[in-house]
Amino acid sequence: MKMTMAAAASFMLCALFFAGSGGTHVEPTTEAVATSEQVPSTLPVCKTVGGGSVFFDVQFCLEALGSDGRSANAGTDYHTCSVIAADLLTANATTTAAKIAGLLLRDRGGKGVDDEATTLSLRTCEALYGGVVRRQQSGCAAVVRGRRSGEATRCLEEAASAAEQCEDGFRKSKVASPVTMENDDAFKLAKLAVALLRMAS
Ligand SMILES: *[C@@H]1O[C@H](CO)[C@@H](O)[C@H](O)[C@H]1NC(C)=O
């Protein structure tokens, strides 16, 4: 079995090699492909914080920072990267709060789209994300910018915890969470910002 797998693997590697080298000689688009696969400038930063984290990986860091144009010039400036991550968190939490408000509005519409447990969990999340957005706007983002790392870390950890509490509400009520992905993103963005901040100080 193992031999068969190894043989299959080496066959596939050969196939890939030939496909690759064939492409190099024949395809005129090779240069464009190489350019689009350029090493992102945030790779060293993301390798450092993602490699050392149990909360998010290198790929998450690359995708998150890469979604903000400012990261192209951030280089290995951990402070700038932490500001970007904190801003992404604000934007993320704002969108999530709006989504939750929309779901609750639909529930209030009289049709009772969701069961009571789901609605109650959503209300808890509404309050939690409302708090995150309020804190981000009324100081958290500013203390990250101002390199006040103690306060900033506390703020960001509160945001991470809010996302966890939101998800826990659904789990405890044994109902499906309609915001699992959003909670996961907010949690990881907050942890990413914390890790970047730690490296910056
Ligand atoms: C939230 O953050 C994640 C991770 O960076 C990203 O993939 C997603 O597009 C963001 N969503 C919004 C609505 O900002």
From TrEMBL:
GO terms for cellular component: extracellular region. InterPro entries: Invertase/methylesterase_inhib, Pectinesterase_inhib_dom. Residues 35-196 form the Pectinesterase inhibitor domain. Keywords: Disulfide bond, Signal. It comes from the Eukaryota. Residues 1-23 form the signal peptide. Transmembrane segments: none annotated. Gene3D superfamilies: Invertase/pectin methylesterase inhibitor family protein. Belongs to the PMEI family. This is Pectinesterase inhibitor domain-containing protein.
